[in-house]
Design a protein that fits this description.
alpha+beta; five-stranded antiparallel beta sheet; two-stranded parallel ribbon; 7 strands; binds coenzyme A
Amino acid sequence: MTNLTNGKAVCLSAIDGHVYKVFPNDLNAHGTAFGGMIMAKCDRLSLVVAERHSGHICVTASVDSIHFMAPAKENDTLLFKVSVNRAWRTSMEIGVRVEAENSYSGECKHILSAYFTFVALDENNAPTAVPPTICETKVQERRFEQAQIRRQARLDTVVALKQHGNASV
Ligand SMILES: CC(C)(COP(=O)(O)OP(=O)(O)OC[C@H]1O[C@@H](n2cnc3c(N)ncnc32)[C@H](O)[C@@H]1OP(=O)(O)O)[C@@H](O)C(=O)NCCC(=O)NCCS
């Protein structure tokens, strides 16, 4: 069995270019791709990356931001790029980028960025340690650094809300 104590390369769990064709049943009343459908796919693909990276069953702990930059249209092809940005003790931040491609013209636009936090669980459903991430590119290093800033913001928010009597996060 491979010793992963020193870490696991980001590329070993990444999804680069999962495609989904937008059909009429994927549209909202506005005639563009339904955001909830896209979010569900992001969560599912992020889960795959988290479970590949950790080697454990994982659960979504939080989604701290989903930004829709532009709509996708009927007949567009959605391209999902998903990878682990950083792992801490038992949690991991997974980043998702979605582009909408017009497969006839080749035009491609960035429509969504999102960050999901997953926690790995052991056989008793308790949080369990995950391998550190090994960055091999400048882009991976930038995402690694920025993930720490987002984590700090998440933890600061939890502490601040608890101080105001909200213990639900
Ligand atoms: C996520 C969950 C396992 C965390 O359990 P917990 O008892 O809070 O565990 P801990 O306090 O030991 O924290 C474990 C890790 O989760 C992280 N975490 C906990 N709550 C979090 C939150 N709201 N956002 C981000 N990270 C969170 C902690 O920072 C910690 O990370 P670290 O070990 O890398 O430092 C638990 O809250 C849970 O089961 N939630 C429900 C998950 C679920 O049903 N998801 C939807 C379906 S998949």
